């Protein structure tokens, strides 16, 4: 993709490619799940699929190709859905993109202690300092992790924060999909 730095690791490039793709779809999107497959292996073992994805002429030999999976069910909690996933051996990793509301750390002291999950979500949605954020989190079978965060109010390719430990809980849940 055009905004993906070539010097980045293959996992970082895949996360930024997914972030750019989902960004092109606009905000208020459902969660999206992606399998990450080794691009060279895909070209060798599935040349017709690689051609369909436009990968047959790529010169890069060390890369990951994100393949969007079926729709993530909206009526099921994300952690419960992820607990049902098992990946075939050909899948090197996976990624998930999800939008959430986030509060700055300074707001933590303001959170009422007697709220259940639904009421807490309502409280956050009404908070004046809330931020809408899109998180793209990816993990590989070998334990590698990467994340990209994009704030709705700073929705440009140059305002995407990346790092391996930005959303550790979601990374743990994705890593569990590879547990034996």
TrEMBL record:
Superkingdom field: Bacteria
InterPro entries: PPA1309-like
Stretch list, region Disordered: 54-73
Protein name: PPA1309 family protein
